[in-house]
Amino acid sequence: MGLLTPAAVFNFVGVSHGFKQVTALAVGGIAGIAAFIGCSLLLHRRLFDPRIRRSSSKGDIMVLVLLWLQLFLGLSTTIWTVNALDGHEMVLFMGWASGLTRFDPGASALILDTALVYKLHIVLGLTLFLITPFTRLVHIWSAPIWYLFRPGYQIVRSHSKTGVSTTPTLGPAGLAPSFGGDTVPRSHSESAQ
Ligand code: HEM
């Protein structure tokens, strides 16, 4: 959003380039660190939890690896950005982004002299958009408002009469995980949790 909003809008509302740059660095940096920690945990789980690993396609793993790399590159840009707090580099990126929306073939010339890490981050960012239709990332184009209105068919575990643990356990390789208790649709469950 920040890159695609025309500079004239920021000028109109009185937000200077320096203020926008520092805000983007601070807010984006904090959000980026949180996302990096979360993505690392998810990637570790997907790679090293045997049950999750068995049900993951190559595409599922690739998407997480690319997102992890993208976050790493994005956070790395901050090392360069702290030396450009007046926002002059950010103005170049904004010019490049608005050039893209106008199909301006000369847009890339604006960012030719910026650090390599920005370019790697941009190439990978655009690649993530490119692979979206072929991976699980496709869900970013859906607006899941229908979830608010759908009937309750969430699957939950019933309480076992025998007192046997209902903790999910690993089934034989290649099969779905087995559960200690019966699995029943929520609408039939006596005590939906
Ligand atoms: C085509 C897509 C993308 C483009 C063009 C892009 C561009 C940029 C640019 C120019 C910066 C430097 C901003 C500055 O100077 O302050 C940046 C920073 C950053 N980007 Fe991206 N990015 C893209 C996608 C992504 C994605 C998908 C993620 C997360 C997975 C991400 C995470 C970050 C982070 C954490 C920072 C550092 C914090 C900040 O400066 O705000 N970027 N990005």
Strand residues, percent: under 5%
**CATH class wording of the largest domain:** Mainly Alpha
Instruction: List cofactors, ions and other ligands.
Output: protoporphyrin IX containing FE
Tally of helical segments = 6
Shape: elongated
Tally of individual domains: 2
What is the CATH H-level superfamily of the largest domain?
A: Transmembrane di-heme cytochromes, Chain C
Q: Give the mean pLDDT.
A: 85
Structural class: mainly alpha
Number of strands: 2
CATH topology of the largest domain: Fumarate Reductase Cytochrome B subunit
Describe the 3D structure.
This protein has 193 residues and is mainly α. Helix content is 50%, strand content 3%. Strands 1-2 form a two-stranded antiparallel sheet. The site of protoporphyrin IX containing FE has 23 residues, from helix 2, helix 4, helix 5 and helix 6.
Topology:
Blueprint: H1 7-12, H2 17-48, H3 50-54, H4 58-81, H5 88-101, H6 116-131, E1 155-157, E2 183-185
Antiparallel strand pairs: 1-2
Helix pairs in contact: 2-4, 4-6
Protoporphyrin IX containing FE is lined by residues 21, 24-25, 28-29, 32, 67, 70-71, 74-75, 77-78, 81, 89-90, 93, 118, 121-122, 125-126, 128.
Defining traits:
193 residues, mainly alpha, Fumarate Reductase Cytochrome B subunit, 2 domains, two-stranded antiparallel ribbon, 6 helices, 2 strands, 3% strand, disordered C terminus, binds protoporphyrin IX containing FE, iron
